[in-house]
């Protein structure tokens, strides 16, 4: 587990995960995935906010995995957290998405908050086993913070607020209008039930239906000075949060591909008769079936190896704290963009073509094999993968980085 010192170079993370840590959290995630898998399709069809599912994550300790052990947290590393997201995505990518966003949202404590306030944020988050939802979507008009006394009033609407309606606190980004901090973008943390917050429940995508990603309305919500977590900046260390969420996406896509292949193999093994033109008796012995499985398995293995490398590198960079330079951040950004490209393309293809080895009966609604494709097809549209390919290409050809944003 991590040896954490909040005084070390403005970072609560040191070193990288050892095999014992990875094995521990992998096993915890596998147990939780088994629970989620048992009724994932039924819950997907209900489309309700995943409040009970988040209790399962809390009980397993996954919510507090990244928080420092000295405050009662799991003291784990980012690599462990990303692997947990991947494992859960094999069973229920919606719940895995909420957990991934929670890790990133609460990660702002370590990346962006004043070191003097970090202990209090960690202590409260661990004591309450908070799940951090967000209302940060950068493509929406920004929320407005109007100064009032020692605090602010928050007003506006944000769409695509993952985890907000189901979690314990909401991380929101807003621009200050007036006062000493006029024009500054701030991250604020608000109680889920704060007066003036309304969850619109308008998330109706074909996949990721339990990700609690509906719109949130803020109507003159009181924000105390103590609710302000940090300014939103492009400083290299603080802005590592964006490569972090892209790395989480890569692991979500990888987990979905792994889950789709595992389910497809299960269905293929249980088919008794081969196609009438085949030269074999058992469906699983058909060379066309074996070819597809071999192709998918090999490509998934390659993506998994890359994801593990990127997860380990993220910990190494996070441990640098203030020593993270623009060059170091840029190298990490591109490395993670490469994973985003291959994980997205691989997962969409696997989830789509897996039906080729499972036959017409696997298209029944009761089988639920479509859940994997619906989930990855929905989430892979979060930000266009073609722009990630351009991002990598511009770096390789010209050494050019895209401007730092909440997407790069």
UniProtKB/TrEMBL annotation:
InterPro entries, A to Z: Acyl-CoA_DH_C (IPR013107), Acyl-CoA_Oxase/DH_mid-dom_sf (IPR046373), AcylCo_DH-like_C (IPR036250), AcylCoA_DH/ox_N (IPR013786), AcylCoA_DH/ox_N_sf (IPR037069), AcylCoA_DH/oxidase_NM_dom_sf (IPR009100)
GO biological process: L-leucine catabolic process
Pfam families per the UniProt record, alphabetical: Acyl-CoA_dh_2, Acyl-CoA_dh_N
GO molecular function, one term: flavin adenine dinucleotide binding
Domain Acyl-CoA dehydrogenase/oxidase N-terminal intervals: 26-127
Keywords: Oxidoreductase
Ranges for domain Acyl-CoA dehydrogenase C-terminal: 248-383
Protein name from the UniProt record: Acyl-CoA dehydrogenase family protein
Organism whose genome encodes this protein: Microbacterium tenebrionis
């Amino acid at each position: 587990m991590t040896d954490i010192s909040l005084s070390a170079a403005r970072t609560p993370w040191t070193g990288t995960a050892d095999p014992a840590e990875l094995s521990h959290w992998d096993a915890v995630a596998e147990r939780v995935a088994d629970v989620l898998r048992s009724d994932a399709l039924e819950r997907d069809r209900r489309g309700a906010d995943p409040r009970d599912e988040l209790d399962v994550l809390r009980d397993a300790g996954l919510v507090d995995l990244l928080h420092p052990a000295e405050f009662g947290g799991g003291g784990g590393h980012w690599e462990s957290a990303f692997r947990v997201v991947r494992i859960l995505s094999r069973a229920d990518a919606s719940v895995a998405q909420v957990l991934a966003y929670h890790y990133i949202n609460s990660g702002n404590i370590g990346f962006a908050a004043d070191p003097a306030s970090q202990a209090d944020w960690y202590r409260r988050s661990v004591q309450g086993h908070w799940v951090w939802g967000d209302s940060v979507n950068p493509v929406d008009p920004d929320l407005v913070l109007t100064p009032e006394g020692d605090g602010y009033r928050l007003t506006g609407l944000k769409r695509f607020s993952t985890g907000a309606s189901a979690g314990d606190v909401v991380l929101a980004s807003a621009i200050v209008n007036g006062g000493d901090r006029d024009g500054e973008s701030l991250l604020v943390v608000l109680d889920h039930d704060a007066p003036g917050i309304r969850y619109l429940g308008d998330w109706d995508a074909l996949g990721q239906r339990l990700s609690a990603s509906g719109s949130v309305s803020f109507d003159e919500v009181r924000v105390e000075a103590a609710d302000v977590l940090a300014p939103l900046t492009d400083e290299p260390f603080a802005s590592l949060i964006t490569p972090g969420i892209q790395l989480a996406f890569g692991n979500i896509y990888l987990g979905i591909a792994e889950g789709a292949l595992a389910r497809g193999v299960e269905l293929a093994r249980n088919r008794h008769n081969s196609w009438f033109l085949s030269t074999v008796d058992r469906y699983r012995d058909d060379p066309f079936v074996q070819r597809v499985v071999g192709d998918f398995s090999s490509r998934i293995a390659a993506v998994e190896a890359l994801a593990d490398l990127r997860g380990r590198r993220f910990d190494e960079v996070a441990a640098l704290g203030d020593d993270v330079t623009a060059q170091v951040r840029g190298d990490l950004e591109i490395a993670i963009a490469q994973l985003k490209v291959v994980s997205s393309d691989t997962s969409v293809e696997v989830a789509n073509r897996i039906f080729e080895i499972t036959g017409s009966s696997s298209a029944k609604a009761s089988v639920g094999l479509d859940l994997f494709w619906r989930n990855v097809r929905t989430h892979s549209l979060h930000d266009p993968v073609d722009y990630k390919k351009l991002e990598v290409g511009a770096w390789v050809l010209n050494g050019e980085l895209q401007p730092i944003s909440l997407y790069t």
